[in-house]
Amino acid sequence: MDSRDSSSSSVPNRDGTAGDDDGVLSVTAALAKDAALYFQSRKFAECVDVLTQLKTKKEGDPKVLHNIAIAEFLRDGCSDPKKMLEVLNNIKRSEELAHASEEQVESGSDVGNKVTSGSKESSSTTHQVSASHSASTIYTAEFDTSVISLNIAVIWFHLHEYAKALSVLEPLYKNIEPIDETTALHICLLLLDVVLASCDASKSADVLNYLEKAFGVGNVSQGDNGNILLQQSTNLVGKLSSVPSSSLVSDASTPDLAASVNASENPLSRTLSEDPLDEMFSTLDIAGQNLSRSADLTSPKELPRTTVDRSIFGVDLKLKLQLYKVRFLLLTRNIKLAKREVKHATNIARGRESSTALLLKAQLEYARGNHRKAIKLLMASTNRTDTAISSMFNNNLGCIYYKLGKYYTSAVFFSKALSNCSSLQKEKPLKLFTFSQDKSLHITYNCGLQYLACGKPIIAARCFQKASLIFYKRPLLWLRLAECCLMAVEKGLVEGSRPPSNRSEIRVDVIGKGRWRKLLIEDRISRSGLVDSVGEDDWALGGDEEPKLSLPLARQCLYNALHLLNCSDSSHLKCLLPSNSSLEENESSDGASSKNPNHKSLVGIDSKPSTLSVGLVNSNGDFKEPKAGTNQEMIHNSVAYFADICRKENQMMKQALLANLAYVELELENPLKALSAARSLLELPGCSRIYIFLGHVYAAEALCLLNKPKEAVEHLSIYLSGPNKVESPFSQEDCEQWLTEKPIDCEEPNGGGGGAATAAKNPSPEGMQEFMFLKPEEACGTLYANLAALYATQGELDRAHQLTTQALSLLPNSTEATMTAIYIDLVLGKSQEALSKLKRCSHVRFLSSNLQSNKSS
Amino acid sequence: MGKKMLNFEEQCKIVNLLKSSSEQKSIEETLTEFFTNPKLRHFNVCYSLSLLLQDKMMLSSTERLVAFAILHRSYSSQKSAANPFISFLVNAACDEGAENYERAFILHLLGFGNSNSSKEFLKQSASEYIKKFDPSSQTFPQKEQLQKQYLEKAHPEPYACLLKSTAVKNVLADPDVPPGCDANSAEFDLEPGAKSKLGSGDRDEALSGLIANLSLEGLIPHWIRPLPPRFPVDEELVWLNPDNNHELQWDQGMCADTSRGAAVRDLIAKALRGPLAPNQQEQVLVELANDPKLVYHCGLTPRKLPELVESNPLIAVDVLIKLINSPEIAEYFTVLVNMDMSLHSMEVVNRLTTAVELPKEFVRTYITNCISSCENIKDKYMQNRLVRLVCVFLQSLIRNRIIDVRDLFIEVQAFCIEFSRIREAAGLFRLLKTLE
Question: What is the pTM of this model?
Answer without folding.
Answer: 0.72
